[in-house]
Amino acid sequence: MTFILFLLFLLLLSLQPAYGGEHPFLYGYEAFKEGRYQEALSRLDSLQEKDILYEYALYFKGLTLLKMGDYRRAERTFRTFLERYPDSVFRTRATLKLAETLFLKGDMEKARSTLKGLERESWEAMYLMARGLEREGDMDGAFDIYLRLWRDHPWEAKGVDEVVRRFKERGYTISPSDQVRRIENLYRAMTGAIEKGKIKDRAISELKSLDLSALGRDLLMRAGRLSYRLGALSFGRKIFQALLRMVKGDERAEALYYLSLICYRKGERGCAETFLKELITSFPDYRTKALYLLSRLRKDEGRLQEALSILEGLYRDGSSSPAVIWDLAWVNYTLKRYAESIRYLEVLKGFPSARDKALYWLGRIHLKMDRRRGMAFLRELVASGRVSYYTFMAEERLRAMGRWYPEGPLDLKVDGLAGSGTGPFKRAKVLVELGLSDLARDEILKRLEGMKDPLERLKGIHLLEEIGAYYDAIGLSTPYLERAGNPLKTLYLRYAYPRGYREEVYRKARASGVDPLLVYAVIREESHFHPRLTSPAHAVGLMQIIPSTGRYLARIEGRKAPDLFDPEENIALGVAYMNRLLKDFNGNIILALAAYNGGPGNLRRWLDVKEGLEVDEFLEEVPYDETRRYVKKVIKSYYIYRLLYRDG
To answer: Of the four listed, 237, 246, 316, 634, which is most buried by Cβ atoms within 10 Å?
Structure first.
């Protein structure tokens, strides 16, 4: 552990800034942003080529000249920049600006030549090409590119919507196929996006505006799948019911299956069963999926013997999916058929993805019959070196029995370090010192591309954390946690599980009596520390608070209407909410987290139905898959935070 801290000290030492707080680039950049172009040009021109920020000065000089309408000098500046700095973070943007300059000069052929090949990596290049064609009067060619942008880049290329609308007023048309493909691309854009809620709203709005009568069977099926994935269940039902009247064979089977899923998600069990029965009797290829969903229906209804009979039939027929095996183990456990449950858990243990769950429940069952054997399974799980919800629960149970030992599952040994490299982040460190965090972030991410040296990568990730780019630091660190034998795993772990906004979190959490590390676990899993993240359900900010909940919390806390994008306000309300839930559920972290995700009203209904269960049993019975997964993810993060920062 001492060696780890020494390494961190050396890492921090190597990142000490090399420049003071004043630099001519800073003044030139600020003048440019404020529209004082003559002053910006003077400041940027004052930098010498040997200056570490000369590359940046040259790029912004080109932008300044372009803004001033001096196209000849702008062209020359951008060409010089591209010749000297082919690996610059601004390479693509400088190429686009050069092409824009050429278009404005009227050099259409040179502009197109500059953009050649770039359209594959930049939608802005396509947009410029379309503008050039429109300027030359080639409206058909321009519309073809605008349409591709509208269809394939529906979220990034926001300004194209208005252009396409203008072309439609001139008589240009968009095919139903392009409309459906655009919505599919909107759905894909939600992955990794910050504004998930807005993208989802746009996708659903455009989906519901489709003229279904103009869609053929294939497009209707695609629209139906999108409806289900986006949660527009009633609209999806309408589409799949229309499909049932026009399709046969596999297409009918798919429509029936989606209808059964929609009914199941809406809680309409009779409707779901009707569609499942047709699938089971008429479509052998869908029989396994349909029977498994029927077993879940029976389980939800409390008809456990029927659920068990269906699952046993699936298992006999060769279904060896972890989901089926787990359900067999769990239903047998619920029926107190412990020997049968153990038999299936031993099979489940062979699946790496389910090993921790199997070991934990093997331990739990054996504790009922043979305390020593039960503890052996729990100890095996804790000693496995894996970190999961189930490891945490095993450790807590051993602790309660007085059999917990403090050595956590993390291997804190560090040896075989790679070389420190040549310091590729010097320019980024200067930008950080000057307070230009946005420019520094892009510079760091550019230098990290393809970097092999893990210690050099840590320097870049540390700089990202230093400027508050925790979201990026987490994304870059997490892949290294899965690499077996990585000697720097623990260092990467600290950046994958950071303590951002430390003053606000500790102050608010301690004042409310909430463990700050639990707050960090919630923030980490809710938003990865991105303060402007919005979820598909429109939860906002670091702790992903629904606006209506935020207003309610603000009112009872005596606050004005909250700005949930503000980290301090979001943390204050999120901690207050967590404190309230912990009090409502007697300090039980698992129940409080389930209420945080699924809503306290839903949780109370579930508790009424599942009365008498221990908390770990109850969580396995929670009917919302999302809530079960959420609680387990947050508990895993909480476990890691406690291991990393147990000393405060």
So the answer is: 634
According to DSSP H, which parts of 137-212 are helical?
A: 139-152, 160-169, 176-189, 196-208
Write out pLDDT tens, residues 403-455: 655 444 444 333 333 333 347 899 999 999 999 999 999 999 999 998 888 88
Query: What is the spatial distance between Cα 545 and Cα 547, in angstroms, rounded to a whole number?
Result: 6
User: What is the average pLDDT across 635-648?
Assistant: 87
Q: CB neighbours of 197 closer than 8 A, spacing ≥ 6?
A: 534, 535, 536, 537, 538, 539
Residue 51 neighbours by CB under 8 Å, 6+ apart: 25, 57
Residues 6+ positions from 433 with CB-CB distance below 8 Å? 17, 18, 19, 20, 21
- % the chain with pLDDT above 70: 93
* Catalytic position from the list 124, 184, 395, 526: 526
Phi, psi of 29 (to 5 degrees): -65, -45
And the tokens for 637? 């993060």
Mean pLDDT of 454-480: 92
Distance separating alpha carbons of residues 560 and 554, to the nearest angstrom:
6
The secondary structure of 558-573, three-state, reads: CCCCCCCCCHHHHHHH
Q: Give the position of tokens 């070389």.
A: 419
Q: What is the pLDDT of residues 116-153, one digit of tens each?
A: 888 777 899 999 999 999 989 999 999 999 999 999 99
Q: Return the closest-CA partner of residue 336 out of 378, 364, 298.
A: 364
Contact 249, 227 (CB under 8 A): no
pLDDT of residue 448: 95
Is 526 among the catalytic positions? yes
> Alpha helices, DSSP H only, in 266-303?
269-282, 287-300
For range 388-401, the mean pLDDT: 92
Residues 6 or more apart whose Cβ sits within 8 Å of residue 336: none
3-state secondary structure of 540: strand
